[in-house]
Amino acid sequence: MRKLVLLGAGYGNMRILLRLLNKDLPDDVKITLIDRTPFHSLKTEFYALAAGTAPDSDIRVALPEHEQLEFVEGEVSKIDLEEKAIKLGDGKAVQYDELVIGLGCEDNYHNVPGAAEYTNSIQTIGKSRLTYNKLLDLGGGATVGIVGAGLSGIELASELRESRPDLKIKLFDRSPRILKDFPERLSNYVKDWFDKHDVEVIANSNITRVEENALYNHEDEIMVDAVVWTAGIQSVSIVRELDIEQDRGRIVLNQYHQVPNYTDVYVVGDNAALPHAPSAQLAEEQAEQIVKVLRHIWNGEALPEKMPEIKLKGFMGSLGKKQGFAYLADRTVTGRIARLLKSGVLWMYKWHNG
């Protein structure tokens, strides 16, 4: 049997399974999926879990079942590219013929003193649960600092405002205006929403230190009761430690999404060095191409001379449960329609994944 091993049940590997687990899967291929949890987590919705506006059950999707698919629950401790083996925390090893690395990311604290020790995270479902418990325990009038005003920070701040109107929320944005790389109309809409809902956006911020109940913006001390860090991500340490070419902690690939010196190893999602910012959409587009490459190889066919360029459709974000914003095909959409679009995409994703 040919052994295809998928590391991580994230968006990329779920798309690979969706495309492979059908009547066209060769009989001599066995797929092994390894993850620390026995379900797929909707990472794009972790902000709602942390804010307390979505239950845990809404953030999970069951893994597919198939006679040629085996699920192994465990923590990956080492990727041995020379031995073509995955070492697990319990001492077991899983051999592979082909491997897809999709282990996701962790917070990047940018060497800010105290950030790792004194901030909360929404990078995993487990950490999002812990963040929810921390925020739930805060008394009325408490101050929450959210460091990082990207999509995750924006959605967390807006959702937390709806679930806890009694809290003071400060959103720290390193840029001069929120979502500065997108049209000003989009930035103004989001900023106006925060102004109307009493969320303080602190522009041109630079968090230089975090303490148990304080953070420092430049040299100004700001007292807080809790801090959530949404100011950047990096590949998990087990990927960063691999002795292969990397670009800022992400693995450099050829056009077939393979590691150049290990062409039986593919990388998908946050672990891949690509010209786009990491996202669920990017991971899924990568996965579509990886499936095509695998089918060519399994069928003994030559690979295409050139792979098509990955083109992303844009992004969507929510501002609570009733408003949202989107940037699609170079067009800005705001308000109720944008929120309905995001809800519809989420519903379709869950439906397609069972």
Automatic annotation (TrEMBL):
Cofactor dependence: FAD
Highest taxon in the source lineage: Bacteria
Domain FAD/NAD(P)-binding stretches: 3-283
Family the entry assigns: Belongs to the NADH dehydrogenase family.
InterPro entries (UniProt xref): FAD/NAD-bd_sf (IPR036188), FAD/NAD-binding_dom (IPR023753), NADH-Q_oxidoreductase (IPR051169)
Protein name (Swiss-Prot/TrEMBL): NAD(P)/FAD-dependent oxidoreductase
Enzyme class, broadest EC rank: oxidoreductase
Keywords: FAD, Flavoprotein, Oxidoreductase
Gene Ontology MF annotations: oxidoreductase activity
Protein EC: 1.6.5.-
Keyword Oxidoreductase found: yes
